[in-house]
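G., the chain you wanted modeled:
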Amino acid sequence: MAETLKAADEEYWNQGLNIVVLKDKKPLHEWQKWIHERQTEQEFNALPWTEANQYAVVCGTKANNGLYFCAIDFDVKNLPSEVIEKGKEILKNLPTTQTEETWSKGQHFVFFSHTKPETVSAYHNVCALELLGEKKLCIMAPSEGYRRLNDNMPSEVQDLEGLFLKAIYNAGIRTKEQKAEAWFNREDLTVKPYEGEHPQCIRELLKGVEQGLRNEA
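Predicted structure as tokens:
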């Protein structure tokens, strides 16, 4: 198993990505420094391969191609059927890419993004989806419990985080970025500040109000 894992993840390491080895989804060593630093060949070879049955790529890091490695995690474990179906609906609006089955019979959809992706976990219980970006690990096949589902390579996208949030919003789920109330019910002002004259309601408030009437005003 150790030789098989090392041969598989060496391909990712050669692309400029950092590798972590695991036993039953638990990292066997410290790895956080590789969020920001390149893993050396000596560090790669010194990983505890003989103890591992899985390996992962550190997400949100830039590969030799100048793009950021990231993935969409479709995690169906212990979720109701309507949540899983919502996730399937959203996935139809994302590009076809390298796809792998996970330990819990979910799926990983692997991408390279021109824009560095943040990790987005807030919608997992709504649509079974999470964006694995900066500071996250993505366990890869042929780790124990993981297998490739197609022969695709990771698709290149301009901004996976933007695509992900747009797909969620188009499926009827309001994202955090879109929940803020707009001034004067003008949703366009959530992205462009209001620069016109004060409306009548504001002009009246600026004149001041009598003591005891502030709530009414």
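DSSP finds six helices and ten strands in the chain.

Shout if anything looks off.
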